[in-house]
């Protein structure tokens, strides 16, 4: 083992690199630090497609055709409502007589209550938001919440009322606040634990999840409502709902969306204790093969939680077995699922060596290899970041990469034109030259890594050039050590580097406007290439 000491200027250059959004475990120049220290800042999630970013959603469907109803006086009335919905116009939907609505809702007559709730629901289902504005300003929401809490309220009326709350909560922060102020939170959470045998239970629970997701998605007042939901026991209630209705993909999808809203990180850090009940659910949902969106969202939530290092979720997730199902998703048919899975694994690999080993034991190394040839830029880049975090581990972990045939892939990617991809591959190789052994460096030499290194020295990126110069210095130093060691085959890297035009590139760097680059290039030329034979 040897430690390469780098100049103060190079330290500063690498320090600037340490602030980039995507981080390896460490950029330390000390082997011991390399093995012990991991980056504390997580990776910020990439912006998702717009339709996947919506934190609030309105239910714009206008039919209850599939809604079962109980026998009784309200049944015929419900049939009439379903038949008349197609004839309603948007202008009619928002023309509400609120005194009459409130009178009907409090009348105790189920037919009148259902009719009033139906009219309110249609008003907030219209594409215009005028109905939401009018309803939020009226006195109907507290009455609706009160009715929801009554055990005698019929499933059909409950569905109408929850639907109203869903769409009002999907409005502005002020609209969401009116739903919360009406006392809807505990009532909606209670609905999640409804008896699965209850008439229309699955539809009610799904709609309640939708309403709660809209409340959790409000980002005003430092996510006050999200925090309120968690304190009120939303997390265990969501777990219970998924357990009771696991065979309903649409409901499970909504539950995953709610989970994503309450676990948003790193921009909004939830209280760790309130979201821990959701962790086993996330692991279970990673294998929910009925809906790719569920797995994609679950992976995205894990990526967010593990990127926020202050949450300390890595150990908790690994302890409950997130490794194996996440690794399985690397071979998923959906590119979106693979994308989020490899991002999550990259974050988990930024932990300590023991945590990294858990994922290696789960089979991550061979699963990463084919992704290094993936045409998808983001997947390839995040796979490189994951590999780079493994290279920052101990020598046995680096050896696992050797055995999986990862090294040739890394050297090949150094030839890429994309600066970010080259940077990730170069950082991985830099980690190997810092913490690996001679055999690992000899393997890189046998793979002709001198050629892309010489090319990188001509890059316009100062950060790339600085790292390449440091990697070059370690290979050159190894050649010198070999030359001084009895019965050791002389190094071949230096000669190959000269033949590839690397020395000419170094001479050009001596005249660089970047003092750090200029000084290090001059040092390398003086120390390793002063022989006229070279």
Helicity, in percent?
55-70%
What class would the helix/strand composition place it in?
Answer: mainly alpha
Integer-rounded radius of gyration: 30 Å
Count up the helices.
Answer: 34
Strand percentage: under 5%
Care to describe what's here?
This protein is mostly helical and 534 residues long. Helix content is 65%, strand content 0%. The protein contains 34 helices and no strands. α12 crosses α13. The longest helix is centred in the C-terminal third of the chain and has 23 residues, at 462-484. The protein is elongated and about 100 Å long. The two termini are 28 Å apart. Residues 1-53 and 65-94 have low confidence and may be disordered.
Features:
disordered N terminus; 34 helices; mainly alpha; 534 residues; single chain
Spell out the blueprint of helices and strands:
Elements: H1 8-17, H2 31-36, H3 50-53, H4 73-84, H5 90-93, H6 98-105, H7 110-125, H8 130-137, H9 140-148, H10 155-169, H11 173-181, H12 184-191, H13 201-216, H14 224-231, H15 234-244, H16 249-262, H17 272-275, H18 278-285, H19 292-307, H20 313-319, H21 323-328, H22 335-348, H23 353-361, H24 364-368, H25 377-391, H26 395-403, H27 406-413, H28 419-435, H29 438-446, H30 450-456, H31 462-484, H32 493-499, H33 502-510, H34 515-528
Helix pairs in contact: 1-31, 4-7, 6-7, 6-9, 7-8, 7-10, 9-10, 10-13, 12-13, 13-16, 15-16, 16-19, 19-22, 22-25, 25-28, 28-31, 30-31, 30-32, 31-34, 33-34
């Amino acid at each position: 083992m040897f430690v390469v000491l780098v100049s103060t200027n190079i330290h500063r250059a690498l320090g600037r690199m340490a602030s980039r959004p995507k981080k390896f475990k460490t950029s330390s120049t000390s082997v011991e630090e390399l093995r012990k220290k991991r980056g504390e800042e997580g990776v910020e999630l990439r912006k998702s497609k717009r339709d996947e970013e919506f934190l609030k959603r309105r239910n714009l469907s206008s039919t209850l055709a599939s809604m079962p109803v109980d026998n009784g006086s309200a049944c015929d009335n419900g049939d009439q409502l379903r038949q008349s919905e197609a004839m309603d116009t948007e202008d009619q939907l928002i023309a509400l007589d609120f005194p009459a609505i409130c009178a009907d809702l409090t009348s105790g007559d189920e037919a009148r209550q259902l009719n009033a709730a139906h009219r309110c629901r249609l008003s907030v289902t219209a594409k215009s938001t005028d109905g939401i504005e009018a309803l939020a300003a009226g006195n109907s929401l507290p009455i609706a919440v009160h009715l929801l809490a009554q055990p005698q309220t019929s499933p059909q009326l409950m569905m109408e009322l929850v639907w109203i709350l869903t769409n009002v909560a999907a409005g502005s922060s002020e609209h969401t606040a009116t739903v919360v102020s009406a006392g809807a939170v505990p009532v909606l959470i209670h609905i999640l634990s409804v008896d699965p045998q209850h008439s229309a239970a699955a539809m009610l629970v799904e709609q309640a999840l939708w309403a709660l997701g809209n409340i959790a998605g409000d980002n005003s007042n430092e996510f006050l409502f999200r925090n309120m939901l968690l304190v009120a026991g939303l997390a265990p209630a969501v777990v219970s709902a998924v357990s009771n209705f696991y065979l309903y993909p649409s409901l499970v999808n909504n539950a995953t969306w709610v989970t994503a809203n309450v676990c948003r990180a790193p921009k909004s850090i939830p209280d760790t204790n309130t979201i821990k009940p959701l962790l086993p659910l996330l692991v279970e949902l990673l294998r929910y093969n009925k809906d790719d969106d569920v797995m994609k969202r679950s992976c995205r939530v894990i990526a967010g939680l593990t990127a926020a290092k202050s949450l300390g979720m890595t150990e908790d997730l690994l302890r409950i077995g997130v490794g194996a199902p996440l690794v399985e998703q690397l071979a998923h048919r959906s590119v979106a699922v693979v994308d989020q899975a490899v991002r999550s694994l990259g974050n988990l690999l930024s932990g300590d060596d023991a945590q990294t080993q858990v994922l290696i034991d789960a089979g991550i190394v061979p699963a990463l290899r084919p992704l290094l040839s993936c045409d998808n830029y983001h997947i390839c880049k995040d796979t490189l970041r994951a590999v780079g975090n493994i290279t920052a581990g101990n020598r046995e972990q680096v050896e696992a990469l050797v055995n999986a045939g990862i090294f040739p892939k890394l050297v090949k990617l150094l030839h890429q034109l994309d600066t970010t991809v080259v940077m990730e591959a170069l950082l991985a190789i830099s980690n190997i030259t810092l913490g690996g052994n001679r055999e690992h460096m000899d393997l890189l030499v046998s793979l002709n890594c001198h050629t892309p290194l010489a090319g990188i020295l001509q890059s316009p990126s100062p950060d790339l050039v600085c790292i390449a110069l440091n990697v070059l210095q370690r290979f050159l130093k190894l050649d010198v050590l070999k030359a001084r060691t009895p019965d050791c085959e002389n190094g071949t890297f230096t000669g190959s580097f000269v033949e590839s035009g690397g020395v000419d590139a170094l001479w050009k760097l001596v005249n660089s406007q970047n003092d750090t680059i200029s000084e290090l290039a001059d040092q390398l030329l003086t120390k390793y290439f002063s022989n006229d034979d070279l």
